[in-house]
Amino acid sequence: MAINPQQKDRIASGKGFIAALDQSGGSTPKALKLYGIDESAYSGDAEMFALVHQMRTRIVTSPAFTGERVLGAILFERTLDDQFAGQDAATYLWETKQVVPFLKIDKGLEDEANGVQMLKPIPGLAELLARAKAKGVFGTKERSVIKANNPAGIAAVLDQQFELGQQVLDAGLVPIIEPEVDIKAADKEAIEVELKKGLLQRLDKIDPATPVILKLTLPSVDGFFKELVEHPGVLKVVALSGGYSRDDANARLAKNPGVIASFSRALTEGLTAQQSDEEFNQALDAAIESIYRASIA
Asked: Is 178 a catalytic residue?
């Protein structure tokens, strides 16, 4: 099952960033609250997910949101079966906006052990990957978290990520491998040294014909991911905002050439349900422009 060559080229050589619109059950109440919708405004998951889908729809259908500055967008699994402006979500992104669609496939995190949080099992993975491929999705995203410089824990996270990544590649999709480093970790810089070493070891076994995407926390040392950016097994290195404000995340990103943004909260910062469409579109345009500028710096 071949990967879409046009989409691969967009991610490899296009200018812009990847929008993370994949807030899940656990992070949705917080995302809605920041968007100006309190938990008292809805009851139950169905109402909550309908409201967050309205928020996502408002973002992706905005005239500010196009392939000129946004290379890709990561969707939540429920969104895959939803529509934007009367079209299947993934189809709308690619055919109407020229934005490459990705799908978050992880089911959340295990409890912390050995200084890390591993991925929970993903039941029905083969079926999910086949469904995503059939709907025109290009790649997947799967997030683990590293909280301490524990070499055994970091190795376990990477082994799990690359094993899952290979299953994704075998299904004709491109994995976004995401071993997030907690920005509050006391030994963040040391974790990043261990993480980069482990990534390079495993990337050397990746066929350059089917490269992966890495999604990493903005590093403590500027330009620290240079070898990863240049590795033949890597299609793109993208950065998560990880709790930094948009201004802070953009400033850090601009000091890491070749790395582009894949922001979630930092993208939607300052957007509210109460804004008129004109106000919303202006705020989104300013956010997209600032992240775009940092991504091409």
From this structure: yes
State the catalytic residue, choosing from 8, 141, 178, 236. Answer: 178
Q: Which residues pair with 140 in a beta bridge?
A: 103, 175
Structural domain boundaries in the chain: 5-295
From the list 97, 104, 215, 236, the catalytic residue is 215
Neighbouring residues of 236: CB distance < 8 A, sequence distance ≥ 6: 11, 12, 213, 214, 260
State phi, psi for 27 to the nearest 5 degrees: -100, -5
Question: Active site includes 104?
Answer: no
Residue 158 CB-density burial (10 A; 0-12 exposed, 13-18 middle, 19+ buried) = buried
User: Which CATH number applies to 5-295?
Assistant: 3.20.20.70
* Integer Cα distance of 138 and 91 in angstroms: 11
**237: enclosing H helix or E strand:** strand 234-240
Q: What is the pLDDT along the chain (297 residues), one digit of tens a residue?
A: 789 999 999 999 999 999 999 977 678 898 999 999 999 999 999 999 999 999 999 999 999 999 999 999 999 999 999 999 999 999 999 999 999 999 999 999 999 999 999 999 999 999 999 999 999 999 999 999 999 999 999 999 999 999 999 999 999 999 999 999 999 999 999 999 999 999 999 999 999 999 999 999 999 999 999 999 999 999 999 999 999 999 999 999 999 999 999 999 999 999 999 999 999 999 999 999 999 999 999
